[in-house]
Amino acid sequence: MTLDCIRSVFAETKTAFEIIVVDNASSDGSAEAIASQFPSIRLMSERHNHGFAKANNIAAREATGEYVLLLNPDTLVLDGAIDKLVDFAERKPEAGIWGGKTLYGDGELNPASCWGRMTLWSITSQLLGFTSIFRQSGLFNPEGYGGWPRNTEREVDIVSGCFLLIKRQFWNELGGFDLSYVMYGEEADLCLRAHELGARPCVTPVSQIVHYAGASETVRTDKMVRLLKAKVLLAQRHLPEWQKPLALALLRLYPLSRKIGTSALGRGSSSATWGDIWRRRSEWWNGWPELEHNT
């Protein structure tokens, strides 16, 4: 999959670029294949799996261009997407962070290219089931920008780290990703910190990639435990002080509400999954531990 991604970058990009690949201690021969097929790129074969955040920080430190583009290995660049994204950035420099439109492998819209920040209202809406019932509503699904098919340029709160463009100077000013977020939440924290410094992240529909999202994620329970750890830390850091006590209480009750709700609807398998997540609440209740040293 990584090889296809690299091929698509070379095939679809005219803007001058360098590619830096951090191989997180893979054992499937990926590093050897990359070195053999693409000798011109910078390959950093690591002895340890650093995870998403640290691997990107390592790569960005080696970058020399004006911009840094984060691009997941499970993506394909379509129709000059990188060129179009750079053009968009040049046209809207005030955004500070730029993203495009993501599609699933079958060509259908993948709405996870961007999303809204977590608020007391968005947490309440999820807890009460409004977000699931009224998924196309911007009122009841504010984090998912419900009802917006990603077909217009728009200012957003968070741009997905699978396809995120930022000026290298601004990335360095922000200190890159915060390594407290072991998995999930990295780009949300980055974009929210950027917003505090005046950035207004934007996305454009003309810059499109395929993102085979979740291709490496096989266990839903484990994924949700990690996601909840990230969401708790994001709430602790970025919600207004007056919202935090109630918002955190509601957020922590969300898995239990899902267990009860899916059980009432006769969805036994889903209810069992949410039950497992609730039983593992000691793992995610307090979020990821905050790290003082983030390099």
From TrEMBL:
The keyword DNA damage does not apply. Keywords: Transferase. It holds the Pfam family Glycos_transf_2. This is Glycosyltransferase family 2 protein. Residues 3-115 form the Glycosyltransferase 2-like domain. GO terms for molecular function: transferase activity. It comes from Mesorhizobium denitrificans.
